[in-house]
Amino acid sequence: MAALARQLHARGWMDGTAGNLSVRLPGGQALITASGRSKGELTAADIVQMHAESGLPTRCPGPPLSAEASIHAALYRAFPDCGAVVHAHPPHTTAVAALAAEAGAVTFTDFEIIKGLGATSVVQVPVFTNWAEVPRIAAEISQRLTDRQGPPVLLIAHHGATAWGATLDEARNRLESLEALCQLHLLTDQR
Ligand SMILES: CSC[C@@H](O)[C@@H](O)C(=O)COP(=O)(O)O
Ligand SMILES: [Zn+2]
User: Fold this and answer.
1) Could you list the residue ranges forming a coiled coil in this record (predicted)?
2) CB 179: neighbour CB atoms within 10 A?
3) Which CATH superfamily is domain 2-187 in?
4) Distances in Å between the alpha carbon of 85 and those of 141, 165, 187?
């Protein structure tokens, strides 16, 4: 987790403590990054255990869980095969998430990198409102992401993106595909 966070921080996708990662463990628990830590220099002390599907800490007192633990938990509940979640603020993705705030979804077509999101030629990515109360974002994700056919990524308006997969590497690959797609979307002026 620390190695991936360091990579994404170096790319400018997790500036100023932004971003969070988690991995599901056997037995219903998960490891998640603690809140407010630089993602460029995480150590074991910055990783906390939580109940995967509730997002509640397994040990109190302890370091505070990521402020977005409820979003990770919503994804673990919705997708039993989800083994890892990565949230970041990649610049092109965040710009597209701002432009699509009103629409509530953004549709990408034709670019080959769409296949990185498991689609063939068209993919519609949901955009959620960036409510100050994160559990409200999580509740909307739980309500809306009931379709297992959707892409394994979501946008949060004016905020960033969350990707998930069976492993951290798969979640990272999907986040990279989304950022590449958003960059192409903007370069070709498809707002
Ligand atoms: C740098 S502020 C960003 C936070 O508000 C949040 O969006 C974020 O990505 C990191 O939150 P965190 O609680 O450290 O996991
Ligand atoms: Zn964030």
Assistant:
1) 161-188
2) 23
3) Class II aldolase/adducin N-terminal domain (3.40.225.10)
4) 14, 7, 28
Whole-model pTM: value is: 0.97
Q: Which of 81, 108, 92, 90 is nearest to 162 (CA)?
A: 90
Look at residue 152 and give its three-state secondary structure.
Answer: coil
C-alpha 20 to ligand 1 mean position (Å): 7
Positive or negative torsion for Cα 130, 51, 27, 78 = negative
d(CA 119, CA 158): 25
Closest Cα to atom 3 of ligand 1 = 18
Q: Residue 16, class by beta-carbon neighbours within 10 Å (0-12 exposed, 13-18 middle, 19+ buried)? A: exposed
The structure tokens 């932004």 sit at: 18
Q: What residue ranges line ligand 1, CB within 6 angstroms?
A: 16-20, 33, 35-36, 66-68, 87
**Ligand 1 centroid to 18 CA: how many Å?**
4
Break the chain into its structural domains and give their ranges: 2-187
Is residue 177 within 8 A of residue 95, CB to CB? The reply is: no
Q: Is the ipTM of this complex over 0.85?
A: yes
The 10s digit of each residue's pLDDT in 144-171 is 998 778 999 999 999 999 999 999 999 9
Angle at 7 between CA 5 and CA 11, to 5 degrees: 115
